[in-house]
Design goal:
Radius of gyration: 14 Å
Structural class: alpha+beta
Shape: globular
Helix content: 10-25%
CATH superfamily: Gcn5-related N-acetyltransferase (GNAT)
Order of helices and strands: EEEHEHEE
CATH class: Alpha Beta
Distance between the termini: 20 Å
Length: about 110
Amino acid sequence: MLAEDAGRVLAYSTFGVNRDDDTGPAVGEIRSFFADPDAWGRGAAPRLIADVLARLAELGYAEVTLWSFAANARANAFYERHGMERDGGRRTQEAWADIAQVRYRRTLAV
């Protein structure tokens, strides 16, 4: 899903089936969520995450998770403003230079 203005991508997200082994079929996953720093403060990211959460609910998911870098205070504050809470999940991945990640989760409106 994209947030764009006059053909310029301001933010994008990918989402779908959860890939974590410890979640069930009622839990979706936001796999990526990125906003162009030049678009910060323009409202694109809040609108986009609202649309993503609504779409996941439409797809039948009762909850959603996402992974974020533990030290990414700006992104983590954004997720928390949008109802996400850390659920205790932690991981590192070689593909991301083994940087500590934390998992966020929230219930979706059905």
